[in-house]
Write a structure and sequence with these properties.
mainly alpha; 0% strand
Amino acid sequence: MQELNSIMRDLLEVEYNQESLLFLLGAAEAVCSEKEQKEAKFIANSTKYYLSSLQRELKMAINKLDSYIAENVKKR
């Protein structure tokens, strides 16, 4: 059970780091010069979309793991 809790902590850390990266991308997008802005926005938006997809998948995995842990606690 300790191993599962450790995995859960790791997954939550990844989720937090993804949120931080989204914040940094938004900040970078806001400070780009006019000339660089179009290309930077494209890169930032593409990365945000990819991160959002990863976050959905990660949240599903966290929910599955959380349910599994809860079920095993009830059985004990």
